[in-house]
Structures are given as structure tokens and as C-alpha cells.
Design brief:
By secondary structure, the chain is an all-alpha fold. It is about 55% helix and about 0% strand. It contains two helices and no strands. The chain has a domain of about 45 residues.
């Protein structure tokens, strides 16, 4: 049996999220707005990661130096 990872539709999720953010803002739901902003940050991070943006850094970046 082959196990497959589900494919995430980040672009679709981001579009829905922007709509939900607008809805929350229009209704003054600050807690929901803050939660949705956090989720948006995570989706954007994942999109950058899958696009290889983080992989394009040099290996020395972000590493702890030996001392």
C-alpha cells in the first residue's frame, strides 16, 4: 500500500483566509482577526518553503557557529 501525503492548496487557503479576515474586520472581531493573521503567516511561510526560498540560503546562514 502506497501512503501519499495530502496536497495542500495553499493558494486556495490564502484566498479564503483573506476573505475571512475582511469579514472579521468588518464585524470588529479582533480576536478572530489576530488568529487569522497568525494562520496567514504560517501559510505564507509554507508557501515560501515549498517554493524553495528558504533552501536558497547559504548553508552558513542561521547556523550556530562553533566557538
Amino acid at each position: 500500500m502506497k501512503i501519499m501525503r495530502p496536497v495542500a492548496d495553499n493558494a486556495g487557503a490564502l484566498a479564503w483566509l483573506e476573505s475571512a479576515l475582511e469579514h472579521a474586520r468588518d464585524r470588529g472581531q479582533k480576536r478572530l482577526e489576530n488568529l487569522l493573521k497568525t494562520v496567514r503567516t504560517e501559510i505564507l511561510f509554507e508557501m515560501r518553503l515549498t517554493a524553495g526560498v528558504l533552501d536558497s540560503r547559504s548553508p552558513a546562514e542561521g547556523e550556530i557557529g562553533e566557538g
